[in-house]
Amino acid sequence: IPTAYGLIGGFHHFVSPMVMAMTWGLLVGTSAVLLIIPVFYSLNDSLARHVSGLLGSVIAKTKTVFIIEKK
Predict the structure, then answer these.
(1) Is 41 in contact with 49 (CB distance < 8 Å)?
(2) Which of 1, 16, 29, 60 is least crowded, fewest Cβ atoms below 10 Å from its Cβ?
(3) Rounded to 5 degrees, what are φ and ψ at 64?
């Protein structure tokens, strides 16, 4: 970060874009892995439980038939 913004160690025109890309990539990747993806998994699980609860009465009314074949 210091090289990209010229805070400590100076600013270098050749290295600055690469360092900024690496920095933003690490920040976005870390936030996605630690925050965004777990939230989507949690929402998906909650939605699946809600839908299965709504459809539970429909599924409970269906009858399961097993066919056993003797040889």
Answers:
(1) no
(2) 60
(3) -95, 130
Could you tell me if residue 68 is inside a domain? no
Residue-level pLDDT, tens digit, the chain, 71 residues: 566 666 666 666 777 788 888 889 999 999 888 988 889 988 988 888 887 777 766 655 666 667 777 76
Inside any domain, residue 70 = no
Count other Cβ atoms within 10 Å, centred on residue 16: 14
Domain membership flag for residue 50:
yes
pTM of the complete model beyond 0.70 = no
Asked if residue 38 is part of any domain, the answer here is yes
Q: Residues 13, 16, 18, 20: is their CA dihedral positive or negative?
A: negative
Q: How many structural domains compose the chain?
A: 1
CB 17 within 8 A of CB 23: no
